[in-house]
Amino acid sequence: MKFKDYLNDDIKKFRELKVGLVKSSAASEVVCRIKEDFDLGVDLLKLKEELNLALKKSYTGKFKFDFCLIEDINIDRLRVKNRDEFLDRMKEKVFKVSDSLAKSQTKLEREIESLRDS
To answer: Rounded distance, CA 99 to CA 19, Å?
Structure first.
């Protein structure tokens, strides 16, 4: 496959993704399509589901974590019981998923770079 074939909209969106709280599914389908073409190293969708399971233990509202370009709400604005414990725990988990996403984005960039060089 030629290098220009890899410069599609999905890759452009994947480069800009972050993890955030949204009302509706944002960009998980982009991650699925990228995952089919490239080895991202980690299962980002599984990490996102684990993050949402942890969220639902303390929060029953309409927001959930997903991959997005723009998040709808900041985690600090959620109404939950044991707010301080919840925020500390969730921020750490969000950081870990965001770190995995950043590593996957870097790995994708390296693969694209190697395709361009060959």
So the answer is: 10
